[in-house]
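INTERNAL TRANSFER SHEET
From: sequence group
To: structure group
Subject: Iron ABC transporter permease

Please process the attached sequence and return the structure record in the designated field. Keep the field labels unchanged so the import script can parse them.
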Amino acid sequence: MHLNTVKVHIKRRLSGWRIVSLAGAAVIMLPILFVLLSIFDPPNNNWVQIRQYLVKDYIAQTIQLTLTVAVLTTLLGVTLAWLTAVFDFPGKRFFRWALILPLAIPPYIAAFTYSTMFSYTGVVQTTLRNRFGIVPNQELVTVSSMRGAVLVFTLFLFPYVYLITKSFLEKQSASYIENARLLGRNGLSIFLRITLPLSRPAIAGSVSLVIFEVLSDYGVTSYFGIQTVSTAIFQTWFGMYDADSAMRLAAWLMMIVIGLFLVEMLLRKRRAYSSTTSKSRPLVPRRLTGIRGWAAGLFCMIVWCAAFLFPLMQLIVWAGWTFDSMWNAGLFRLIYQTLIVAVVSTLIIMIFSLIAAASNRTRSTASFVLSKAITAGYSMPGAIIAIGVLVVFLKLDKVWAAFHHQFTLGGTPLVISLTLAMLIAGYVIRFMATGYNAVEVGFEKMGRKYTEASRMLGHGMTATFFKVDLPLIKGAVMSGCLLTFVEICKELPLALILRPFNFETLATKAYRYASDEQIFEAAIPSLLIIGISLISVYVIHYLDRRWEQ
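Return from structure group:
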């Protein structure tokens, strides 16, 4: 069979898989569109009050928090990436991977940990008073403020910028930096005139991840009492029981996200970032000796301790205090509930990701649009996804209620809105991108030659997928499974809104303990989340090292 004939035959046989992909993309986009279109609905009395007195403050504080965190994470992440990629100093081999570890601690856990550590009865102020006789100014050490939120987000989100920028510098900038050194440029001049311009795409991409994390946050801002659009959605829904106004606030938050996308597109318009040579070699670090080397190591040590070691040690101490009372059947049920919903959601995501990625292997405009639609949920804050899913499921229950009334059936008409199906749907929409992107990368590395060869030998599409494609991309599939599973276990806003009555996950339970000022009791659920998150960090580090090889 001629090769071109095989390709045409494959495309025809993929049409059924493409239909499934299109249906899945439509399901993912439906809640987002419901939220976006709600901005055109007639407002109620609550919304008139919210728009007149509160929306400006919500948006102003959201923008202030987001921009400040974006700037500080850029400064910290790029500086650490520059040090560990370009220079060699004492402790570099340790810090090169250890600086990724703060990603294992969700910001909402770090928020109540640091807030308690720096409180009047916390370990920091108690040590200063009892051992050194220092009574610090409460306004300076209080973490529960906008300043504290910026600190927490910066310390626990900078690894996004650090990891992506470091990887870019190590793989793409060697010839430019070495040429600049030969021309007599020093370290600071190279950093400002060579490294920063070259790293702009990597920095922009990583900072966008930080911005999305801040916009989707509810735990940190609500615990510190900061009025952002995300916290306003929860207050409107749980405090005023006003779904319409909550949807409008979610629509405003979505408009901010879309605005950020447009700004990023305008900034990159007509600008190309590519190497002038196809040759690429790893960057050879320059040795820092004397005080400069120890200063670099000390700086990395301070950041690592503040962003990982200190909060982890504090949580371990608190867990020891409450272990006897917390380690019981209730905790095991909590672990089971978290794992079962994460496993089911991950399986659905990976199955659909395999179908969508396998049917989307052609480089066409339709494939590009489909991939963007499938992964759109990850760029949307969890509150938006939650409100959209909630509205869709309530409308489905209204349809069922009409059917129920017409045929005079017994029982309650509320069926799917009271089950785990709503929470699982929210997880699937929110984290489809993690599974799909992992599978798509696996297919890109594999290429099409093995699939086409199998089809030329007469194997069907399904047989080819299971016997050829799947074994070749199993590493990517496993990575996607792990990353998706961990993200679901950490997710807080979706679980708070969409979980059924009397159903808790580790994330919601830890947050509720902290909100009720039961900080010590929140330690064990928090450590379990961190332990699961360390899996994600290990996968990221493993993939990074494998890419280097």
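Handover comment: DSSP finds 26 helices and two strands in the chain. The radius of gyration is 25 Å.
Transfer complete.
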